[in-house]
Inverse folding.
């Protein structure tokens, strides 16, 4: 090409036209960005892709909020996400304006539909179907009724202690299987001995696969889903078929096992039997409501419990104080019960500190904005994704000094729970109309398992070949659910009387 040749007017227009269009588009985006809550500028068209790391983005959101304020916005490929980094903003939007902020984002709903997971209340859009599911679940878990599960929870704990006494070499497996057995028993009436690790594996697979699906927003584009499998980028059809099968298995498998137990006549009273007795509940609805309990309840509670074990190794002084309280209040002749909680403020404070320190859902579950709104003068666009930075709020040094340390004492005053300290449970379980319906049950589960484990076991560091203790760090995985990364530990029964207590506490119906 001869660059000395002058361009004619058509050529000039051909070059300028796309540039002018791009510039107008850029100005429009800039104008829209300025009316949103503040946040890093990002790059044209791509937005903040380079500002937000894949690994633990909640830590970066917290840093950004130090610079821009408690409500920040970021955008990726023009999809706006607003992140709430203070309890007051969460309260203003999710509680006070709950009619606007109670749905799930459109992309989440679309992906749930195409992967077959839309039966799960967690991802349903706000509306009548969600309301019907939620009401049935809540009937079984609200403060007035959650007490009906106390004895099953205690029974589950006794089984857990016995399993640890037998073999504590695979803590992750033992904890998850125990929490799964208790929830299967409560939900379906299935006896604990009929629950095997296959169910835990199924839930695991469901968690991993569904997280992978939600990570691929391109799936919301119908043409991407239609690319044949032999084309480059055409793996989605096969993947989608796999996800749909998994969703169906998660919905059906435990229910089938429950029906089997019903038919054999060895099922105990359960949420399934409660719901099937209810006049307005059809079988499909009961299946969905019960399956969601397992999908949402097992990994969250067992993941939090594993973090407790990690905390006890790195904070032996906390463990010792908890054990001293248990010795004084409960004594050596029995195991603790849920009714002991008011007399065990230190152990209660350990549970609160655990919910603050380890956040199993660090960014909660995304909410959507159903209609354009204005907040503190900012535009909250229709369809924006709104997230709570649960980790950020519960690690705010102004609310909780020295936030990375595990200090149950921060919740105590004059030997009692200090009501003036912000309760982590009011954020750790989300907020508004979508707040976790299993929260009272989860806190009870954590309390009874933590109190019982401290009562009879010592949790200590593992030792290396030279006999030196191996230090443990609180390192976590990234994702919708965040768990502690594998760590080494040693679990020892505290005394021969503790051993007899565990053995004798197991009753006939426990197995
Ligand atoms: C430590 C344990 C748990 C934690 C930290 C936790 C946390 C959460 C969070 C952050 C949400 C999202 C709330 C929102 O959208 O704002 C949620 C939703 C949910 N959780 Fe939990 N959860 C736990 C245990 C449980 C248990 C034991 C169950 C079942 C009994 C359960 C059932 C659900 C359900 C069904 C939803 C969806 C609610 C809806 O979309 O309306 N969770 N949970």
């Amino acid at each position: 090409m001869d660059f000395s040749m002058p361009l004619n007017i058509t050529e000039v227009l051909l070059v300028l036209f796309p540039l002018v269009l791009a510039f107008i588009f850029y100005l429009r985006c800039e104008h829209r960005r300025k009316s949103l809550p503040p946040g890093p500028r990002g790059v044209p068209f791509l937005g903040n892709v380079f500002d937000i790391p894949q690994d633990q983005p909640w830590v970066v959101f917290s840093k950004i909020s130090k610079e821009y304020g408690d409500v920040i916005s970021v955008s990726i490929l023009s999809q706006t996400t607003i992140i709430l980094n203070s309890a007051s903003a969460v309260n203003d939007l999710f509680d006070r304006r709950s009619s606007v902020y109670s749905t799930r984002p459109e992309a989440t709903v679309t992906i749930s539909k195409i992967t077959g997971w839309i039966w799960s209340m967690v991802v349903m859009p706000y509306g009548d179907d969600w309301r019907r599911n939620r009401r049935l679940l809540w009937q079984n878990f609200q403060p007035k009724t959650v007490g009906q599960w106390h004895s099953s929870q205690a029974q589950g704990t006794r089984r857990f202690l016995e399993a640890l006494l037998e073999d504590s070499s695979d803590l992750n497996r033992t904890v998850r299987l125990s929490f799964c057995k208790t929830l299967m028993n409560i939900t379906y009436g299935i006896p604990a001995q009929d629950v095997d690790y296959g169910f835990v594996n199924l839930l695991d697979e469901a968690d991993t696969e569904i997280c992978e699906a939600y990570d691929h927003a391109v799936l919301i584009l119908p043409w991407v889903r239609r690319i044949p499998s032999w084309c480059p980028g055409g793996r989605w059809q096969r993947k989608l078929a796999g996800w749909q099968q998994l969703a169906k298995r998660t919905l059906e498998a435990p229910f089938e096992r429950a029906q089997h137990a019903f038919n054999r006549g060895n099922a105990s009273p359960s949420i399934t039997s409660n719901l099937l007795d209810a006049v307005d509940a059809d079988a499909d609805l009961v299946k969905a409501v019960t399956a969601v309990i397992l999908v949402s309840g097992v990994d969250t509670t067992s993941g939090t419990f594993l973090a407790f074990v990690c905390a006890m190794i790195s904070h032996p002084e906390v463990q010792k104080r908890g054990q001293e309280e248990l010795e004084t209040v409960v004594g050596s002749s029995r195991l603790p019960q849920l009714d002991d909680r008011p007399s065990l403020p230190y152990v209660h404070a350990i549970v609160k500190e655990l919910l603050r320190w380890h956040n199993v859902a660090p960014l909660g579950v995304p909410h959507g904005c159903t209609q354009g709104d204005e907040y503190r003068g900012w535009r909250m666009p229709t369809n924006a994704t709104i997230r709570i930075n649960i980790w950020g709020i519960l690690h705010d040094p102004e609310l909780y000094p020295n936030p990375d340390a595990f200090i149950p004492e921060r919740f105590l005053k004059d030997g009692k729970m200090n009501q003036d300290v912000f309760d982590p449970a009011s954020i750790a379980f989300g907020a508004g109309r979508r707040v976790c319906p299993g929260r009272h049950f989860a806190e009870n589960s954590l309390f009874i398992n933590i109190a019982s484990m401290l009562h009879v076991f010592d949790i200590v560091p593992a030792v290396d070949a030279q006999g030196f203790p191996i230090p443990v760090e609180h390192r976590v995985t990234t994702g919708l659910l965040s768990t502690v990364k594998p760590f080494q530990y040693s679990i020892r029964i505290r005394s021969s009387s503790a051993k007899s207590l565990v053995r004798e506490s197991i009753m006939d119906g426990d197995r």
Remarks:
- Residues 113-361+398-508 form a domain with the Cytochrome p450 fold (CATH 1.10.630.10).
- Residues 121-122, 134, 137, 141, 292-293, 296-297, 300-301, 304, 360-361, 364-365, 367, 428-431, 434-438, 441-442 surround protoporphyrin IX containing FE (CB under 6 Å).
- Strands lie at 71-76, 79-84, 367-368, 373-375, 378-380, 385-388, 412-413, 416-417, 457-460, 490-493.
- The chain has a mean pLDDT of 91.
